[in-house]
Design goal:
4-stranded antiparallel beta sheet, Alpha-Beta Plaits, 5-stranded antiparallel beta sheet, about 850 residues, extended, alpha+beta, 24 helices
Length: about 850
């Protein structure tokens, strides 16, 4: 039971394992998850350790599995997750796993390579098919243009004697005005010879066409004829698998020089050139052959894809378990690299931290591992003396883990220090509820958390990548308690969606007639005359009549401000009290007398006295009492406390006998302030002075012993005085900082708890504003017809959305963060150091969860 309030007691053990049994024993410890191994080879390079070869083999197997996983996801095959958690395979089984992965990778890479080659051939044949179809129209157009060219060339010869030689350009555009025939000066110099045009045909990306045309024009000086035609269906790139828009082109030119230029330009723009016969019969014959080859390729591609699909489906059934096995193997060999070899090279030696209560369980796991390996030498687990601070290990379950994470986020507890988590389970949702007190909003929060708790198994099985959802699901029990406590405080405040519940009947009644009540807007009820005859107050919480009162906020201000101070002072006093248990556990009597007692007296003399005054004022001053004990003569608690600290008298109250609540209050307050001030130098100087005297006595004892042994009067160890003086000086500085922080913090921390009052009022007012501005308008209509009914529905929908998004989510998050600050700063600073480090056992469960999280990212 003590492990709930303090971390587990840890033991440093030395483990001796035979080489043959080490793998199986570490595997069993990984399944158990209760041993943290120390790295005994921290000075050895990671590439020079014993099992670095096995770790590399595991990385290689993991790489192959990642490749298989990518291919499976690329093919759209669902990976089967049976929830199985196979054990780590034996070392002899690793070879079979490697062979299986190697065979699958080789086969899959070969199939992918063949499929890519077939797809590339299919793409080339498809492009050639489109080239052969489109070029027939291009050739018809060019033949017509060549005839026109010869006619114009003949005319130019006749007129050659009468006009100077000049360049004649012929430009003919098609209907779209996109393709142009360009025959320049070189073409006209052909004279009477037959015009012999060359051409190239191919396919180019559609986005590169404008730059391609400009380059042809500039390099070839316009002496080319370019024709283009779009391919209607996008073609898939076999390398990337992305669809691409392409166009067929053909370029006519004259001369070998232009042919070379055109080909280089096509290569530069990554255009694919295809052979295209000039004769139509040959083109038709080639097109038929291309279609036949495309059909054959389709058949082969389908068979290849079917074979690839079968291989991936078979791999998808086992890939999860393969991943688990490989991760476990890698973790085992990585852990074995922490071990040392003995002199005989036949035994591995490890040092590890283990919980003291689980040593027997760990020994049984080691025996199981030895039995699995077939070794006859039993493992040895010995406790050794520890010279360093052990890790901190707090046992948690699914309920307490969320609260423990809140505490650990501030700092891991020092070893065997009091754990704040058990107290946080109650105080955290309660302080949250003081700020969030609303029965309606608390119910919404409780129902949401109850949904998460009741369906936690099915929701946990659905691994969600949404980070916000994962945070809410992890803190479902915190939200459940926060909603439950908010329902309770909402019942105390008598507040449900800014309205009140009349559960027990109002305890107020009027002594006026009906006309007076209806006509007088500023009518006030006298508390001395307005209660029931039996003089019983409202049984639980606030009377619902306060919802109708004009001075509702004034009353709630005083009420919530006082209970905030009361809860804050009690919370801080509880934190100071917990420090006593820490000091007693670690046998630190000096801190008990020099820190705890003055701190407790200081806080009690000032702030707890103020809390007692509040209760005394509530009990003593009432509307039924005589005038000296009526609320009109009740002094202000805040003014009384300020005057108490400043040694001033309270201002006199008119028609009142005294400014104090009881006789002797002035003397008592002066004594309390004097005691509180006296505690400050005790906290500041007592502990350093006591430590300094203890060290002087220790040095005198050591020196006296050295004098007796050596027979001389020299002071042994006198040369270390400078170091001791530095330590005393540091202790004075530390104690001074700690004292100033506590004294000033007592004031600021008490004021910090006023956030309970401020956020509670803000939440109530926001809820009231939403009700009055939205729902009251919906229900204040004189006639409720069909249209008004639909309008009420939309009013309610708008109100519900704002209530959930603003009052539940945003206000809830704000109250959560303020509560977290009150625990981290105001409460835990009184007793909690948080200077430890977490116990990180070798656990397959944690390793697999980390691997899954890194994969999802």
């Amino acid at each position: 039971m003590s492990s709930v309030f303090r971390s587990e007691e840890m033991a440093l053990c030395q483990l001796f394992l035979q080489n043959e049994a080490a793998y199986a024993c570490v595997s069993e410890l990984g399944e158990l998850g209760l041993v943290e191994f120390k790295d005994l080879n921290s000075n050895v390079n990671s590439f020079q350790r014993k099992y670095v070869g096995e770790v590399r083999r595991c990385y290689e197997m993991e790489r192959k599995l990642r490749y298989l996983e990518r291919e499976i996801k690329k093919n759209g095959i669902k990976i089967l997750d049976t929830g199985e958690n196979p054990e780590a395979p034996q070392p002899r089984e690793i070879i079979d796993l490697e062979a299986t992965f190697d065979k699958l990778e080789t086969e899959l890479r070969e199939v992918n390579h063949n499929a890519e080659t077939l797809k590339r051939n299919f793409l080339e044949l498809t492009e050639l098919k489109h080239v052969l179809r489109k070029t027939q129209v291009f050739f018809d157009e060019v033949n017509f243009l060549v005839i026109i060219y010869f006619i114009l060339n003949s005319i130019s010869k006749i007129k050659q004697k009468h006009m100077p030689a000049c360049a004649v350009a012929l430009q003919m555009a098609d209907q779209n005005d996109e393709q142009v025939l360009l025959l320049g000066e070189e073409g006209l110099r052909a004279g009477g010879q037959v015009l012999n045009l060359g051409f190239v045909a191919g396919v180019i990306m559609r986005g590169r066409i404008p730059a391609f045309e400009r380059m042809l024009w500039r390099v070839c000086r316009g002496n080319v004829f370019l024709r283009l035609a779009e391919i209607g269906t996008p073609l898939t790139d076999p390398s990337t698998g992305e669809p691409e828009d392409k166009s067929v082109f053909i370029i006519f030119f004259q001369g070998d020089q232009l042919r070379s230029r055109v080909r280089k330009i096509c290569e530069g723009f990554r255009a694919t050139l295809y052979p295209c016969p000039e004769a139509p019969p040959r083109r038709r014959e080639m097109a038929m052959g291309v279609l036949t080859r495309i059909e054959d390729l389709n058949t082969v591609l389908n068979q290849t894809n079917d074979h690839r699909h079968r291989v991936l489906v078979a791999a998808a059934k086992n890939i999860k378990s393969w991943f688990i096995k490989v991760i476990k193997i890698k973790a085992i060999y990585h852990t074995l690299n922490f071990f040392n070899l003995d002199v005989t090279q036949k035994c591995l030696i490890a040092e590890c931290w283990v919980p003291l209560l689980d040593i027997e369980t760990i020994q049984l796991a080691l025996l199981r591992g030895t039995h699995r390996s077939g070794s006859s030498v039993p493992p040895i687990l010995n406790r050794i003396k520890k010279f360093e601070n052990p890790p901190t290990y707090n046992r948690t379950n699914k309920f307490t883990s969320a609260f423990q994470n809140l505490v650990d986020a501030y700092g891991i507890a020092s070893y065997r220090e009091i754990n704040p988590a058990p107290y946080t389970i109650i105080s955290f949702p309660f302080l949250f509820a003081v700020m969030f007190g609303d029965l309606g909003h608390g119910t919404l929060m409780f129902l949401f958390a109850a949904f998460l708790v009741l369906l936690e198994k099915s929701l946990a099985a659905k691994k969600n990548d949404n980070e916000v959802w994962n945070i809410l699901f992890a803190g479902r029990y915190i939200i459940l308690l926060m909603g439950l406590f908010a329902m309770y405080t909402g019942l105390i405040y008598n507040d449900i969606f800014s309205k009140s519940l009349n559960l027990f009947g109002c305890r107020w009644h009027t002594n006026y007639n009906v006309s007076t009540v209806l006509d007088n807007k500023f009518l006030q009820l006298n508390p001395a005359l307005s209660s029931n005859y039996d003089q019983t107050p409202y049984p639980l919480g606030l009377d619902p009549v306060w919802q109708l009162a004009e001075n509702k906020i004034v009353f709630l201000n005083a009420y919530k401000m006082k209970i905030s101070i009361i809860f804050g002072v009690l919370h801080m006093l509880f934190g100071v009290t917990l420090s006593l248990y820490n000091y007693r556990y670690f046998n630190d009597r000096l801190s008990v007398y020099c820190e705890f007692i003055p701190q407790f007296i200081f806080l009690t003399s000032l702030f707890f006295y103020m809390v007692l005054l509040m209760f005394y004022k509530w009990i003593t001053y009432g509307p039924q009492n005589d005038f000296p004990k009526s609320p009109a003569c009740a002094p202000s608690i805040l003014i009384t406390f300020i005057n108490m600290v400043l040694f001033k008298d309270n201002p006199p109250l008119e028609h009142c006998n005294t400014v104090y609540m009881f006789s002797g209050q002035e003397t008592l307050q002066k004594c309390l302030v004097f005691v509180a001030v006296l505690c400050v130098p005790i906290m500041l100087f007592a502990k350093p002075i006591c430590v300094m005297r203890q060290k002087e006595k220790h040095v005198q004892l050591v020196n006296g012993h050295a004098t007796t042994e050596n027979g001389n009067a020299e002071r042994a160890g006198g040369g270390h005085g400078g170091h001791g003086e530095n330590e005393i000086g540091e202790l004075f500085i530390y104690q001074g900082i700690h004292t100033i922080e506590y004294v000033l913090g007592s004031v600021s921390h008490t004021a910090s708890y006023l956030r309970l009052w401020a956020l509670s009022l803000a939440h109530a007012q926001l809820s009231d504003v939403l009700w009055n501005m939205i729902l009251r308008k919906a229900f204040s209509q004189e006639e409720l017809g069909y249209f008004q009914g639909v309008l009420v529905y939309f009013y309610f929908l708008f109100w519900a959305i704002l209530t959930v998004s603003i009052l539940v989510l945003m206000e809830g998050l704000s109250a959560f963060l303020h509560t977290l600050r009150l625990h981290w700063v105001e409460f835990q600073s009184k007793f909690y150091k948080g200077l430890g480090y977490a116990f990180s056992p070798f656990s397959f469960e944690v390793i697999l969860m980390t691997a899954v999280a890194s994969t999802e990212e």
